[in-house]
Amino acid sequence: MLTGHAPWVSCSTRDLVPDDRLPSWQRALSRTFVDVEVTVEQDRPWDGDLTADRLGVLQIATQEFGPGTVLRGARAVAADPRTHLLVRRQLEGTARLLQDGRTAELRPGDLAFLDARRPFRIVLPERQRARILMVPRALLRLEERQLHALTATVVDESAEGAAGLLLPLLDGLVDEVARAGSLRREQLARAVVDILATVALEQAGRPPEPADLWVRITESVRTRLGEPGLGPQTIADQHGISLRYLHQLFQRHDTTVGAWVRTRRLEAAHEELVHPATAHRPVAAVAVRWGFTSPSHFSRAFRDMYGMSPAQWRRAAGAVRAED
């Protein structure tokens, strides 16, 4: 990446056999940034290229990858002690960053921050290219509440204030790092960190976007009710929030994650049991379709909610239709 010497990390999947590409790419990302899990659609072509250099407290990387998803879940956060901030400057293509209940849709020229100390998700719908700067959290001199307000928010050059002025300068400094000698690189790296601190402070002070996290989470869960493994940790990881924050969100709506999911599943099964198009489907099959792995557990939960067994409900609804 930097001229005149070999980069600290250099990885390309293009010359690897297909079975080796994904594990090699995941190892490269985890070594360069923080421990993450990478997923790709096996029926879609993809490849990845990564170069990275360390310059004192600053790390600069250029990454080309996609389509695919990069997840840092709660287990990875607990196992990996690195607590840096990742600053993503989108160069080509698009990316979707999810953390702390927010989603940042990045287009070329946009910038966003991610905090490695909390779960996040990066969705890449296409092959794209980005520059990623990695800096210790303490160097941005932000309070914890400011960091929570900063993550997964879009900074772009059209913004008023410091960001609009400093982002082009940031790009110029990073490019200059690639051409400078060793001593000069260290000085430029410190200047880059100072600019990031200024941009982050201004961005963290902006009013938050309207909260639609509850709607996004519940709409997403409704589309996945049939997945037996759909649980709080899976939901939290998908939306880039901590498990604790997810539970707090559901508590604000006077429910729990498990109770809300179970109720929606029972409602869906209740409707399907009496639908003419599925009248032939066994009760056990309906239970499995909506995420219940145990028919007896499904029957008990159904009776508790509706006062009759699934079979009784189906017969009663059929008798009503016959009378009509």
UniProtKB/TrEMBL annotation:
GO molecular function, one term: sequence-specific DNA binding
Regions that span the bilayer: none
Cross-referenced SUPFAM superfamilies: Homeodomain-like, RmlC-like cupins
A Pfam family annotated for this UniProt entry: AraC_binding_2
SMART domains, per the entry: HTH_ARAC
Superkingdom of source: Bacteria
Domain HTH araC/xylS-type: 215-316
Keyword annotations from UniProtKB, A to Z: DNA-binding, Transcription, Transcription regulation
Tagged with keyword Transcription: yes
Name this polypeptide is given: Helix-turn-helix domain-containing protein
Lineage start: Bacteria, Bacillati, Actinomycetota, Actinomycetes, Kitasatosporales
